[in-house]
Each structure stands twice: as structure tokens, then as C-alpha cells.
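Researcher: Go.
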Amino acid sequence: MHDLVETSEAAGDIVQSEEIGEAMLALRTFMFDHVYLGPHARGEHERARRTVRRIFDHLADQGEDADAIVTFVSGMTDRFALDYAEAHT
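Model: Structure:
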């Protein structure tokens, strides 16, 4: 936090130091490679697709407009989407 404040103040813009920026990029790369897109997460990706499809189909069957459904679903947290799908589909 101090890095961001101090580096931003010196630069006159919101920036990180090169050292912290590199560390954040390394962390981001690790997270995508090993957590978000890692082999153990692939089953969850399919579960997410099925859940969103069930919600979309349910709302479409209720006569909701496709744009309204997309807006509604895009605002859902993971937990809310799973709970909603279980309760309504």
C-alpha cells in the first residue's frame, strides 16, 4: 500500500513501482496458470457454464428479454448464481 501511495505521489499519477508491478504480474501469471485455468478448475468451468445456461433458459422460458437476462446474470456472485439455479430450475 505504501508503494502505491509513494510512487503515485512522485509520478503525479496512480502507478506502482517497477518492483511491485513485476511482483503483481508474476502473481497474476501464477494465479491464471495454477488456479483459474489449471487442470483442477476445468470441471468447475463446465459446472459454471451449465449453471448459467440453466438460469438463462429458465428466465427465457419466463419471457424475460435476453439483454435483461444477461444484465441480471452478469451481476450475480458465484454463490448467488448457484443458489438461484437450485431454487428456480
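Model: Residues 41-88 form one domain.
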